[in-house]
Amino acid sequence: MKQKRFKILAVCGGNGSWIYPMKEYLTANIEPRPIFSTPNNIQWRANFGKRVKLYNHLQPSEVVPANVIIGAPDCGNSSMMALTRAKRLSDPLNNESFASFFNQIKESEPEIFFMENLPKAQPYVESIGWLKKRYHLHFLVKPVTFFGNSQAGRVRLIVMGIRKDFKINHKLIWKHITKPQEHKIKTTRELLSGLTEKNYDHRFGHITENLNSVVTIYAGKKLPLSDIKKYWEKDPKQKRFLAKGRKYTSAPGVYRNLPDEYPQVARKTNRQFNPNGIQMSPRELARIQGIPDSFRIVAYFNQPNRNLGYWINKGRATATKCPPYEVGLWILWALRWIYEHKKLSIK
Q1: How far apart are CA 166 and CA 135, in angstroms?
Q2: Residue 166: its pLDDT value, please?
Q3: How far apart are CA 250 and CA 271, in angstroms?
């Protein structure tokens, strides 16, 4: 059966690390979050060229042709870290990127949309009145191992919406694409194979801060990275940095990935360490996120007023502040299946 070609508009697709497999179908990405901004959109253009446009917003006169919208808007407002800091969860509908995603759906009325987020976002999506009137909504909450990524502790929400006048059996579609599949889950050692401190290369995104650098390991506690490395080396099995004089016993968000365990949740912070006790490079984090080495992580040191730390931070955000790569692969597979079998699943 000949496949109907569909066009995808990403809204809050970050720098594209998880939508890279959709490149052939992608028309543009609308990304309002400045954390992903780089001079002249260098990071985006390195992987998508000039054909796939990157916007921080659309002008009223601009129209992006697409019958599918996908996105991963900011979920910080409903995260456990936000709960820890603010002692309450805030409404993600007040978040700019979250609102941008649904506003674009409201304006464009795509046939299908997919959104990735934290599970706690589900009731907020269900509360959008106009969305429930126009779309059949389906929700999937699974650890990312369901899609083939190795971060066993990372649980995510997938929302699929199918426009009600799009003549397709949405229940049959959802039942098929959410069938469990077998995946080989890799350990940290397997994922980071070949990446060492001896082959750092900024052109590959495998680079990290100098061991003389001083970081705040937890509130009020600053240490050189060399001392932190020695701390990890004392106990090869230690993966949490113990805190002293605090209500918490281990420093929040600070951990080391052990070689023969599944990796912990990759984050954009600079307090994640590899098995050797060194801060993880953007490329190491990308490996944990399932991102292939063919995806370029840019670090241009000849840019005016842009130092090493700037590019490392941008690289870490590019790799981690997005869904795992395998989620993008799954969405692409689902879309291909839906459009290939559209005639077989008419209402």
Answers
A1: 9
A2: 93
A3: 13
β 250-256/240-242 pair status: antiparallel
- Residue 219's SS3 state is coil
* Crossing angle (nearest 10°) for helices 170-177 and 325-340: 140
C-beta separation of 339 from 4 below 8 A: yes
Q: Position of tokens 């805030």?
A: 90
Element (H, E) at 220: none
* pLDDT score at 76: 57
Question: In terms of residues, how long is the chain?
Answer: 347
Cβ–Cβ < 8 Å for 297, 283: yes
**SS3 (DSSP) at 140:** strand
pLDDT of the residue at 58: 85
DSSP assignment string, 245-288: SSSSSEEEEEEE--TTSPPPPP-SSS-EE-TTSSBPPHHHHHHH
Which stretches in the chain have pLDDT values below 70? Answer: 1-4, 76-93, 301-305, 343-347
**Nearest-10 Cα torsion for 195, 152, 323, 315:** -30
